[in-house]
Design brief:
Helix content is 75%, strand content 0%. With 267 residues, it is mainly α. Helix 3 crosses helix 4, helix 4 runs antiparallel to helix 7 and helix 7 packs across helix 9.
Length: 267
C-alpha cells in the first residue's frame, strides 16, 4: 500500500470514471448509495444514542458502497447485502475511525463556537440566513474558521474506511495515511472540487432554471431525478479516487490513464 502522487488532471478523471462506473450498474450503486444514507438517517433518529451509533457505524456502511463499486468495476454480481459487507471486515478499526471522526468533529464545533457571535448558531437553528449575512455579524469569518478546521478532519477520514477494510490497517494508521495521501494529492483534489461544484451544483441549477423558464412544472419534475444520478456518481468518485491513489488490495495497480508513469511517481 503506497499513496501515489497524481497530476492535477486526475481529479477531473475521478468524476468522469465515476460516471462511467455508475452507468455500468446504476441499480446496484444507486441502491447502495441511498441505502447508506437511509440507514444513517434511521439510526440517527433513535433517541439518546442514535447519533452516536450512526457516527460509529458510518465507516462500515460507507465500505459497503465502496464494495458495490468495486464489484461493479470487477464485473462481479453481488446482491443487496453488499451494503452491510463492511461489517464483516476489520469492524473494530472501522468503528474506531467513526469514533475518532466524531471526536474531531465535536472539537471543531467547540472551537468554532468560540469565535461565533451567535450568527452561525442562529442559521443552524433555521433562522433566515440572508438576514444573518446582511446584518453586522461575523458569520463569514466563522464559516472560514470552520472550513479551515474541518478540512484536515475530512482529509484524515477520506480514505480511512477503505484502508481499514481492504488493507486491514489500524484506525490511527489509516487516518494518518489518508491525511498524507490527501495532502500529497492536493492538486487533483482542487480539480476534483471544481469539477464537483460544476457537476453537482452549477450544471443542474442551469438545467432546472432553463426548464423552469419553459414550464415551472417541468422544472419541478426535472429536479426530482437529478439527485438520483448525482449522489450515486459522487459516491463512485470516492472509489475511483481510492483506486487511483492506492490501487486495489488484490494487486491491481493504480489507474494511470491520463498521465505518464513518471508523473504518478512524483517525477
Amino acid at each position: 500500500m503506497q499513496a501515489q502522487q497524481l497530476p492535477m488532471q486526475r481529479g477531473w478523471a475521478w468524476l468522469r470514471e465515476g460516471l462511467q462506473l455508475w452507468r455500468r450498474n446504476p441499480a446496484l450503486i444507486t441502491f447502495a448509495t441511498f441505502g447508506y444514507l437511509l440507514s444513517i438517517v434511521v439510526i440517527s433518529i433513535v433517541p439518546l444514542l442514535g447519533q452516536l451509533v450512526a457516527s460509529l457505524v458510518m465507516p462500515a456502511l460507507s465500505v459497503g458502497v465502496l464494495n458495490a463499486c468495486r464489484a461493479t468495476d470487477a464485473g462481479r454480481k453481488v446482491g443487496p447485502d453488499v451494503l452491510f459487507s463492511g461489517f464483516k471486515t476489520n469492524l473494530p478499526a472501522l468503528v474506531a475511525i467513526g469514533g475518532l471522526y466524531l471526536a474531531a468533529t465535536l472539537i471543531v464545533l467547540l472551537l468554532v463556537s468560540l469565535v461565533d457571535d451567535g450568527s452561525l448558531a442562529a442559521v443552524m437553528r433555521g433562522e433566515d440566513i440572508e438576514a444573518q449575512m446582511s446584518g453586522d455579524t461575523s458569520i463569514g469569518f466563522t464559516l472560514l474558521v470552520g472550513l479551515a478546521l474541518s478540512t484536515p478532519v475530512m482529509m484524515a477520514y477520506w480514505f480511512a474506511p477503505a484502508l481499514a477494510a481492504w488493507w486491514k490497517v489500524p484506525a490511527p494508521k489509516a487516518m494518518f495515511f489518508s491525511f498524507y495521501a490527501c495532502l500529497r494529492n492536493w492538486r487533483p483534489f482542487v480539480a476534483y472540487a471544481i469539477g464537483l461544484a460544476i457537476f453537482g451544483a452549477i450544471l443542474p441549477g442551469i438545467l432546472i432554471g432553463v426548464l423552469g423558464l419553459l414550464s415551472p412544472t417541468l422544472g419541478s419534475l426535472a429536479s426530482l431525478p437529478i439527485p438520483l444520478i448525482i449522489l450515486p456518481v459522487i459516491f463512485t468518485t470516492f472509489y475511483t479516487a481510492t483506486r487511483d491513489v492506492f490501487g486495489l488490495p488484490d494487486g491491481q495497480a493504480p489507474r494511470t490513464l491520463d498521465a505518464p508513469a513518471d508523473e504518478h511517481n512524483g517525477g
